[in-house]
Every structure is written in structure tokens, then in C-alpha cells.
# Entry
Amino acid sequence: MIYLNPAGLAPFHHEVQQEIARTLNTFSHLLYAEAGIRYYRDTLQECRRTIADWLKVNNKERVAFMPNSTTACNLVLSRINWLPGHVLLTTTHENSTILNEIQKLRDRGIRVVTLDPDVPSGFLPALERTLDEQPIQAIVISHVSHLDGRIFPITAIQDLAQSHHTLLIVDGAQAIGQIPVTFQEISPYAYFFPGHKWCTGPMGTGALIIGKDDHQETQPYWAGYEMGTHNIGLIAGFAKACHLKAQQNPDNPILEQVREKWKVCLGHCPGIRIIEGDGAQAPGILSFACLDEHTEQVMHTLSSTHSIAWKTLTHPSHPSNLSIRISWNTDTPSIDIRSTLALFSSLSNE
# Structure
């Protein structure tokens, strides 16, 4: 199989698997004896420190472990004092599971304003106008769009949110591990991400970076969000994956070079239009729309015949067309990239 979907689920490193097994094996000999409880707590705190150091979070107690991004979003939204008539702002580029959490608020009488990032006047001006026109209690937005890899200007959005006393909640699922992110530069109300995408960690893991403490000063920030007993094996694997990422160059040029090759190749394919935003793009994602039924059928046949795994979706800019998102990371075999590029090049010559 040619796997071009690490933006959905990335295979994790063998060192991560080894760390999971080692941690669980150690704990299985201790369990909830006094020594086991110490090991459990110490392991969690060390994993918190690993992630905080990587992302330059000034206090490891701001790192809460989550099973996934959806749970993190649910917990953050549930702790806001929503009243009927309050307004939440989001975009057309949010993941469906996050939109489902937002829909629950709509069912409680919260009004939801949804902006299209491709508004002709520009996204930031449209966002500022919306904030000027009415009080917005919270903004829920992706750092990187899962639909086409555009990077939202989080620093500028944060400035607008703070000037309008609006809470900024950021979904970093497609950002952490793919683009450089440091919490020395941003400080949203909440920021969450899973372990199983660009961090290349295990499924069932993730983190919530808490930007504002609404609990007692004597209580750790994470205490208000983490519920029940954790699987410390998975969390140790998650932290190991983050440690391995921290050792890589955050501005890895290889991903961008692959993206440029894809752009050149797809640009010559009839019936295909590359989808990009006006600003910065993440280096490991490229999306394109199939402009007619023939091209859609060719893509289905190509995927089936050559066992290519990619993400099919409906993009807001092309709602009546099939769109495809391809993604790759530093572990994607170069032969898979070359093989797929060759297949698309043959299409352009037909």
C-alpha cells in the first residue's frame, strides 16, 4: 500500500512501541502498591515535562493529557459559562468532530457564526468586522486546516480576540509536529492536539495546553481537565514520540520540497485544480479538486488499482466536486512519493 494520509493517522515509530511496552511492563509489577502509585505519578509528570519543554510551555502544569482532540474540545467548551444568546465564532474548515461539539452548543441556544476563510475581502478583515459588530464569547479555529493545509494566522487572530475580550480555542491537530509551534509566541485560552497524527504517537493520546487558570491557585491546571486513571503506557509512548519530534528540524525542508514536486505534477493534470489559501501553507499537505466526473472516476480507479490511501473530502470552495487531500511526513518512503508522482505524470500525458 502507498500511504499518503499521515494527516489522518500516522504509523508510529518502533521506539514509541518499545516505550509503551517498557512502561506497561514496569507498572505491571508494581500496580497500585505504594511504589506503583509513585511510579504512575512520576511517569505522568515526566511526560508532562517532555511535552512542555518541546513546545516551550512555561509551566508543565498547563499540560493536561487527553484521549483525543474531540474530548479536549468538549471539556474546554463545557467549562465556559454559556448563556442563551451567547455567540461562538468558527470557520468552514473545522473538523467534523469539532463541529459536532459546536452543534451541541447550538442546541442549547448558543448562536454560531461560521466564517469562510476564502471570503473575498480577506479572512482577518472579515473576522475583525464580525468581532466589531457583536460580542463574541469564543472563537474555535484550527491552526492548520485539515481540508487543504492552509495555516491560519493564529498570532493575529489572538490579538483580535484579546482586544475584543474573546476566548480563543485552537485545534492544533494538523499543526503540532508538522509546523513549528511554540507557546512563547502564542497564548490562547486553550490549545489541543492528538498524538496520532503529526506527532506520530499512539492513538488514544493527546494534550490540552491550558492558557488560563480558572481553578484555585493551589490546584494544578490539569487537575480540572484530566478525568480518571490514565493508560500510562500510551502516555509514555506519546511523550516519547514528542521527544523524537523535538530532535528533528522544525523547519524540515524535505516536506516542502515534496510539496513543490506535487504542485508541479498536479498542475499539468487536466481536470485537477490545486486548492490553496492566500497565505502560508503547511509543508506536508496538498489538496486538489476533481473538476469533472471523468477525473473523479480516474482518481477512484488509481486509488483502487495501486492501493493508494489518501483522504477524500468535500471542500467548501468546490462543494459539488470530489476533493482529495494527500499528506506525507518524514517517514513516508521516498519510493512511494516517486511512484505516485509517476502515476500522475502519466495522466498528464494522456
